[in-house]
Design a protein that fits this description.
Elements lengths: L2 H6 L27 H15 L6 E2 L11 H10 L14 H15 L9 E4 L3 H11 L5 E6 L4 H8 L3 E6 L15 H6 E7 L11 H14 L2 E5 L24 E6 L12 E5 L1 H12 L7 H11 L3 H23 L12 E5 L3 E2 L8 H12 L1 E2 L1 E3 L5 E5 L7 H18 L1 E2 L3
Parallel strand pairs: 1-11, 3-4, 3-5, 5-6, 6-7
Antiparallel strand pairs: 2-8, 7-8, 9-13, 10-14, 12-13
Helix pairs in contact: 2-12, 3-10, 4-10, 5-6, 5-9, 11-13
The structure holds pyridoxal-5'-phosphate.
Length: 421
């Protein structure tokens, strides 16, 4: 039987029972649960077919809307033609690590040895896949904040470890309550994964919080991985690195990304920096997983890191868009403020409409807003019910941004949303 025929007849391939338990074992590929982003996609399709003339107002896309800066593309243009950039980059070239060290010194006054305390990664996502390989044996625990970016948790489980979830609640400023963690969990915890500025809540960390984390890590003997993907999109003050905290370099690493703050999402560049021994363990696992990012891309990324006008411009754009969005949403009844950082606005989900609809979860509100009003948001129901609005929509001019906001406000006004007080 050809593969095509066996797929059509729903006949399992001979290797169905061979799939590893970590991805579902013999049940792999048969899961009928529909995931959040697939539900959003389906609701968008329905909205477009029910209202073909109505434009979708898409606040659901979590990716920068602009190309990398023209100066970065120009460096790439030149480097791509140089013979010396052609080969395996392995654990990375000195030029990028040195630019990362200059970046950490200039922005955060953190001094790092580029040779031993910094290593590139092919975007920051693979770093979260690889760091658990450095620490997690079966039964070990990774503490992760929820809602959040799940990759380190997924890989912790792949290695037979467990994830202990730390809910991020509005009443705690979206910082985890580390005092509530049971001692049995602390005894088995090897990693704490943090992410500030936080996605999706938009919260930033405080110096006091980081000081507490450093003290706890030493007392309870775990390492800290701080995800700084959105760090250059900080709005409530200068960006704050975990490594600025006294003693932080003794307990962990911070993972940086070129994606958000430098409009380089698809270029796949980031770096892990901090404690030399952790960076070296990461580099060893990485060396056994990939052969490094194309050197021309590393050189373009180094040029980006050396040009502070790039993140300054991108930060100003998303701040402006967030301010406009907050003003519009407030007029429609949302209780929200410009977040401390990220390009996300995380707002309490409505409980229903004046017309009598009720929403048990943010997911219900999302579906209603997409299907009835063509407004796309992302629901989060992990710790309370919230809608995430991303300001990465496509608008070439400020006038287009304003028109989009006006239309959003009109449609949300028509929706007549209400909140349980
Ligand atoms: C919080 C957070 N961390 C890390 C990443 C990974 O970014 P990248 O792999 O593009 O560096 C993302 C991407 O969406 C993110 O939202």
């Amino acid at each position: 039987m050809s593969t095509e025929t066996s797929e059509k007849n729903n006949v399992d391939p001979y290797f169905q029972a061979l799939f590893a338990d970590r991805i579902g074992g013999a049940s792999y590929g048969k899961d009928t649960e529909i995931y959040k982003f697939e539900k959003i996609k389906r609701a968008k399709r329905k909205a477009l077919s029910d209202h073909p003339g109505r434009k979708l107002l898409d606040f659901g896309i979590g990716e920068n809307d602009s190309m990398a800066d023209s100066r970065v593309r120009e460096v790439m243009n030149q480097e791509v033609n140089k013979t010396e950039n052609r080969g395996y980059a392995d654990n990375g070239i000195a030029e990028y690590k040195e630019a990362a060290a200059r970046f950490m010194k200039r922005h955060f006054d953190v001094s790092l040895d580029p040779a031993t305390q910094i290593n590139h990664s092919i975007g920051s996502k693979p770093a979260y896949a690889m760091l658990p390989a450095c620490f997690i044996n079966p039964g070990d625990v990774t503490m992760m904040t929820v809602p959040g970016y799940p990759v380190a948790g997924t890989h912790t489980r792949y290695y037979g470890g467990e994830v202990f979830k730390l809910p991020l609640l509005a009443e705690n400023g979206f910082l985890p309550d580390l005092d509530s963690v049971p001692d049995d969990i602390y005894r088995r915890t090897k990693m704490l994964v943090l992410n500030y500025p936080n996605s999706p809540t938009g919260a930033t960390a405080t110096r006091e919080f980081y000081e507490k984390v450093v003290a706890l890590a030493k007392a309870k003997q775990f390492i800290v991985v701080q995800d700084a993907a959105h760090i250059m999109l900080s709005f409530d003050g200068p960006p704050l690195s975990f490594l600025q905290t006294p003693g932080a370099i003794d307990v962990g690493v911070e993972v940086h990304s070129m994606s958000k703050g430098y409009d380089m999402i698809g270029w796949r560049m980031g770096f892990v920096c901090g404690h030399e021994r952790i960076v070296s363990a990461f580099a060893d696992v990485k060396d056994n997983s990939d052969s490094g990012q194309f050197m021309a891309i590393q050189k373009a990324a180094a040029a980006a890191l050396d040009d502070d006008s790039i993140p300054t411009r991108i930060q100003a754009k998303y701040k402006r868009r967030l301010e406009k969005l907050v003003a519009s949403l407030k007029r429609c009844g949302f209780d929200c403020n410009v977040p401390g950082g990220t390009y996300f606005l995380y707002a309490k989900s409505p409980s229903g409409t004046e017309g009598g609809e009720t929403f048990a979860k943010a997911e219900d509100a999302t579906r209603h807003l997409i299907e009835q009003f063509g407004i796309v948001t992302v629901p989060w129901d992990d710790a309370g019910s919230f809608l995430r609005f991303s300001v990465t929509y496509v608008a070439d001019t400020e006038a287009e941004e304003d028109a989009l906001m006006q239309e959003t406000e009109k449609r949300l006004g028509d929706a007549g949303l209400v909140w349980n007080k």
